[in-house]
Amino acid sequence: MRRKRYSRDSEAELDITAFMNLMIVLVPILLLGMVFSRITVVEVTLPPAATLAATPDDDKQVELVIRGDGLRVDFPRGVRLKTIPLTEEGEYDFELLSLVLQEVKRQLLEQGIERRNITLLPEQDIDYQTIVAAMDAVRSFRTLVAASVVDAALFPDIAFGDAPAAPEGGKAG
């Protein structure tokens, strides 16, 4: 009896059509389900202690007091420059704050002082989102340079402290 010999020249074919169909459906679904996030780290410092020896530029410190009834820009330290009340909707006016700080920055540069730091002084009951929005407003502002909108540095070095006590009337005048 003779045995039939099968030739080993023919190779088995692998059918991956079902796998490809699964990938075509699965990849877009997984991509849509992904969470894209961006984490930003902002380094903050404590304000300089009052007991340290004062430098000549310390009187040119810019401070932002954040109260429940509005914002107050102090320049130089402790001297009220501008009070920004809440808008009619009861929100903080960070656009006006940015304009005021741009003017302060311009005045400092005209005097030959390169100031990059600001001290935020929020009251105890100010919510976190308001503080973050204030940090964004004081760090940079959008401007047009060579037909492109860019973020220009304003006061990128931020320090924190406690707001001074409110005046007797309860308002942050």
Structure write-up:
There is one protein chain. This protein has helices spanning 17-33, 94-110, 128-139; strands at 44-45, 62-67, 70-74, 80-85, 117-122, 140-145, 148-153, 157-160. With 173 residues, the protein is α/β, with parallel strands linked by helices. The protein has a domain at 44-49 and 56-160: Nucleotidyltransferase, domain 5 (2-Layer Sandwich). The protein has a six-stranded mixed beta sheet with strand order 1-8-5-2-3-4, with helices on one face. Helix 2 packs parallel to helix 3 (128-139).
**Share of helix, binned:** 25-40%
CATH class of the domain at 44-49 and 56-160: Alpha Beta
Radius of gyration: 30 Å
Largest sheet: 6 strands, mixed
Shape: elongated
**Beginning-to-end CA distance, first to last residue:** 113 Å
Kindly state the number of beta strands. 8
In terms of per-residue confidence, which ranges show pLDDT below 50 for 5 or more consecutive residues? none
Order the strands across the largest sheet as they lie in space: 1-8-5-2-3-4
Mean pLDDT equals: 81
Percent strand equals 15-25%
Helical stretch tally: 3
User: Quaternary state, please?
Assistant: single chain
CATH architecture group name of the domain at 44-49 and 56-160? 2-Layer Sandwich
Layout of helices and strands:
Blueprint lengths: L16 H17 L10 E2 L16 E6 L2 E5 L5 E6 L8 H17 L6 E6 L5 H12 E6 L2 E6 L3 E4 L13
Parallel strand pairs: 1-8, 2-5, 5-8
Antiparallel strand pairs: 2-3, 3-4, 6-7
Helix pairs in contact: 2-3
